[in-house]
Amino acid sequence: MAKTQKPPRRYREDLSETPDWLKRKKCPQRDQYLSGKRILPANLTGKEKLTDLVDETFLAYNAARLKEACQLFVRKMLEPDVTVGMSLAGALTPAGLGCSSIVPLIKAGFVDWIVATGANLYHDLHFALNYPVRVGSFKMDDTELRNNDIVRIYDVLLGYSDCLMATDEILRSILIQPEFQKEMGTAELHYLLGRYAAEWERQAGLKDVSVLAAAYRAGVPCYTSSPGDSTIGMNVAGVELRGSKLRINPSIDVNETTAFVLAAKRAGGKSAAVLWGGGSPKNFMLQTEPQIQEVLRIKEYGHDYFLQVTDARPDTGGLSGATPSEAVSWGKVDPESLPDAVVCYTDTTIAMPILTHYALATHKPRKLRRLYDQRAAMIKALTKEYFLHNPVKMIDGPDRMF
Ligand SMILES: NC(=O)c1ccc[n+]([C@@H]2O[C@H](COP(=O)([O-])OP(=O)(O)OC[C@H]3O[C@@H](n4cnc5c(N)ncnc54)[C@H](O)[C@@H]3O)[C@@H](O)[C@H]2O)c1
User: Fold this and answer.
1) Ligand 1 atom at shortest distance from the alpha carbon of 346
2) 3-state DSSP assignment of residue 339
3) Which residue of 132, 194, 335, 393 could cross-link 212, Cys pair, CB 3.0 to 4.6 Å?
4) d(CA 228, CA 245)
């Protein structure tokens, strides 16, 4: 057979065992259904690049979903007109994902705003302070660990006095500084903490180990959906007993994040949600659309791209496992965008470094959007549109704000 000639498609010729009903069928869509890539990957050699491994051997099940996630991220979400939000749940920074993946994603301009559990941002501070977090084992005796001044996050170990308590002590000394003595949202809180984290990194001779420091430098606003529910929140509450005037106002966060999504849409661009795990950060990120549509009554259609890595099932009704199609019913995801939605059931600690590597290897850095610096202007635009769409007045004030 000549090299250029394609081998003939082989259909079964002996139809004697084919049931009668099938013999008579024309099967017009058969070729279309079977038009997918043939599953026949080459033998691995050990010389493959990670990107080729993903593209060529992640062919089915959650490997295929991870490949689709990588491709969706690089081919669509990283287009210049897309504003990318990233939610972080699960103990990611203690596992080193801040240094390995989140910081590089921030530096490359691949994430424009973040919603994290407070714990992820709190544990990030140990890295900035150069307090070691170490590999341990999930099989260790926790009473023994307690007796040895050690705390455990599954197979990750931290010193109780010299890492945890030491971080808290420094955190409290910062939280009573004059710049913190006012009401603020969590983006400002984390920006101010990020400035310290950047300085600690510098003093320790470390580079790019802290998410808060990287976000501070890149103007990426970092929110937390439950400000009281982490050791940062616990210390904020602790210093309040000493008369601290720091008050976290979650409504500032709701309005700022909503303003980012509306601004992306009004600029003719798109909004992407990259969701690592579930929990309240996932909802906080997605609820920006119902906030626009249901509460502020502004005409809008939902996030354009949805990518989630999770271990949570959809059938328990919990938000952590809720699918993108369920999110459509709430207006969180644009129904037109459902083909651009991927859910990968795996552990973030596996998927995040792979996706980060894939993106860095195949996409050039994006210009930093620096949303932190644009919060006031975007809130102003959101407020203006709110008043345009609603017959409301300022409470105890003029008819319209603008
Ligand atoms: N995790 C900690 O070390 C820690 C410490 C102190 C406080 N907290 C607080 O507890 C609350 C809960 O946070 P959390 O971080 O434990 O999240 P969580 O357990 O609430 O996670 C939410 C969901 O994300 C998914 N998920 C979690 N880890 C995942 C992973 N590795 N891969 C894929 N999916 C994953 C799970 O489906 C889970 O239901 C937060 O408010 C946090 O600030 C957590």
Assistant:
1) 33
2) helix
3) 194
4) 16
* Positive or negative torsion for Cα 167, 170, 175, 179: negative
Nearest alpha-carbon partner for 250 in 227, 278, 232, 283: 227
The answer for residues whose C-beta is within 8 angstroms of residue 357's C-beta and 6 or more apart is: 50, 51
Which pLDDT band, with edges at 50, 70 and 90, does 22 fall under?
confident
The confidence score (pLDDT) of residue 331 equals 85
Q: Ligand 1: distance of its center to the CA of 253 in Å?
A: 20
State the CB neighbour count (10 A cutoff) for residue 100: 15
Strand order in the sheet with 156-159: 133-135, 156-159, 150-153
Catalytic residues, by residue number, are 332
Atom 8 (ligand 1) nearest CA: 119
Q: What is the mean pLDDT of the chain?
A: 93
- The minimum-distance atom of ligand 1 relative to the CA of 94 is 3
- Say how many Å lie between the CA of residue 136 and the centre of ligand 1: 19
For 315, the token pair is 């059938």
pTM for the complete prediction? 0.93
